[in-house]
Design a protein that fits this description.
Helices cover about 10% and strands about 50% of the residues. The chain is mainly β. The chain has a five-stranded parallel beta barrel with strand order 26-27-29-30-28. The model has no long low-confidence stretch (mean pLDDT about 95).
Length: about 500
């Protein structure tokens, strides 16, 4: 996204708030006692403001219980400090609309927002348990129920906006959803800034989901999630998630920090991920996956700190939908400092990420395309990774003479652990071309049986200023198999 685009978004939201009229929630009989159900009163207030030229619905100190409400154009909900919008504990107080359930819906609206220093609390754990109770009684149907975990579409998100323009989410605390926390789909001109996300009280508690949106700014947020923290998705072939800036966020997740590719049908283009910190995260700091036929193009990652995170970078092309093969090219990742732990990074959280794909030792970075779909034009510059080492060959050994045994897994769900054991303790690169390493510094604390960097079917790769530090007997830092045009400058 160009600076001009970001400035336009910021000025647009300033203009929306500068001339808005304020309406007190109490004017509409909205109760603040934490008991009364205010759904109809809040909806009446939103409708009235919308019909009278727009403005802000202002909630003062109190606890305001609600079920599903629908935002309307030119209306902003403003939560003063001490104001808490509470989700009802009754599952039947929420609408299910086009698959999803939510506390706050908006469809095809413009100039809308939620601002202030107050709180949205979905009370999702209790709501999810009440949904489960109704499923067991046969009142709510869930054909996908497994392990007593209701389908995510039956559990309310805090926010679901689709097809909206000029959206601002600013300053609030948003917490405890029963499903994903907040989802913005096919929206244009979206600003999410200075919010705190506490999203770890149930399964599927993504922090922020951005689906097929255009012109997005996500900046200066604190996100703590039991599932993916910032997750970009593409649900439809005729849409792209594009022109997105993710800047200066603090991120923790029991899954991945910044991820795109859970759904990648259309794809992702022109994304800038700048000055973010990912910490105590079980899976990947960043994951980019094209597995549903979509594209990933023109991605910039700069100034990333990955602390106590199980995997640093995972890039993947797959073929989850038969005949639909994605593409990935023009990615620049620079100025990365990473510390990979020997132990589970999210240990002790209520909803830890499940340990999967054993047996395997830890693998910090993998870039894996397909034989007929190479990942192209990747620049890795000023990268420093500290790895614990000590990989146990008796536990999960894959030797350099066994590379062909590593499965392709064309149709598998994309996670860094999907190949189980990989033969590199630093970088494993397979089915790629046009790769540049510049000032990459790898530190291994204990001697590892594996090679620092393994190339398999890689064509055109340049190493400039590669440094590898590992105790024990010296080994060549790079092993090349079935590859060509490998240069060390």
């Amino acid at each position: 996204m160009h600076t001009k685009t970001a400035t336009t978004i910021a000025l647009l939201f300033l203009s929306l708030t500068a001339f808005s009229k304020d309406y007190k929630a109490s004017f509409f009989g909205i109760e603040s006692n934490g008991i009364a159900l205010n759904t109809r009163s809040i909806q009446k207030a939103i409708d009235h403001i919308h019909e009278n030229g727009g403005g802000r619905l202002v909630f003062d100190v109190g606890r305001f219980v609600t079920g599903t409400i629908y935002m309307k154009s030119n209306v902003t909900i403003h939560l003063e400090e001490g104001a808490i919008l509470l989700g009802s504990l009754n599952p039947f107080d929420y609408d299910r609309n086009r698959y999803w359930t939510a506390m706050i819906f908006a469809y095809d609206q413009e100039n809308i927002g939620i601002t202030g220093k107050g709180v949205i609390d979905g009370r999702g754990y209790q709501v999810a348990q009440n949904v489960l109770s109704m499923i067991h009684k046969g009142i709510i149907k869930d054909k996908d129920l497994k392990n007593d975990r209701p389908n995510e579409g039956l559990r309310p998100q805090n926010i679901y906006f689709k097809g909206c323009k000029n959206v601002t989410i600013q300053g609030i605390i948003i917490k405890n959803p029963a499903s994903w926390n907040q989802q913005y789909e096919q929206c244009k001109n979206l600003l999410i800034e200075n919010i705190a996300v506490d999203s770890k009280n149930y399964w599927n508690n993504d922090g922020i989901d951005i689906v097929d949106c255009d012109s997005v700014m996500v900046r200066n947020n604190y996100i703590d999630a039991s599932d993916d923290a910032i997750c970009l998705k593409s649900h439809q072939a005729d849409f792209l998630c594009q022109n997105v800036k993710i800047i200066n966020n603090m991120i923790r997740s029991s899954a991945s920090g910044i991820k795109f590719g859970t759904f990648s049908i259309g794809g992702f283009k022109n994304i800038e991920i700048i000055n973010n910190t990912v910490f105590d995260t079980y899976r990947s700091a960043i994951t980019f996956a094209a597995v549903d036929g979509g594209i990933i193009e023109n991605i910039l990652v700069d100034s990333l700190r990955s602390l106590n995170t199980g995997n640093v970078i995972f890039l993947r092309i797959g073929e989850r939908r038969p005949g639909k093969i994605g593409s990935m090219k023009n990615i620049r990742i620079s100025n990365v400092y990473a510390e990979v732990p020997a132990t589970k990074a999210d240990a002790g959280y209520l909803y830890e990420g499940p340990v999967e794909d054993l047996p395997r030792n830890i693998s910090p970075v993998s870039i894996v395309g397909l034989p007929d779909a190479l990942i192209e034009n990747i620049v890795l510059k000023n990268i420093e990774i500290h790895y614990p080492g000590g990989g146990n060959p008796k536990y999960a050994k894959v030797g350099l003479d066994e590379l062909d045994k590593i499965p392709e897994h064309r149709a598998e769900y994309p996670e860094f652990s999907m190949f189980k054991e990989l033969p590199a303790w630093g970088f494993y690169i397979r089915h790629a071309k046009g790769i540049v390493f510049e000032n990459v510094d790898l530190h291994c604390e204990k001697e590892d049986y594996r090679t620092p960097i393994v190339l398999d079917d890689v064509h055109g790769i340049i190493f400039k200023g590669l440094k590898v530090k590992e105790p024990g007997k010296k080994k060549k830092p790079v092993y090349s198999h079935n590859s060509s045009d490998v240069k060390n400058d």
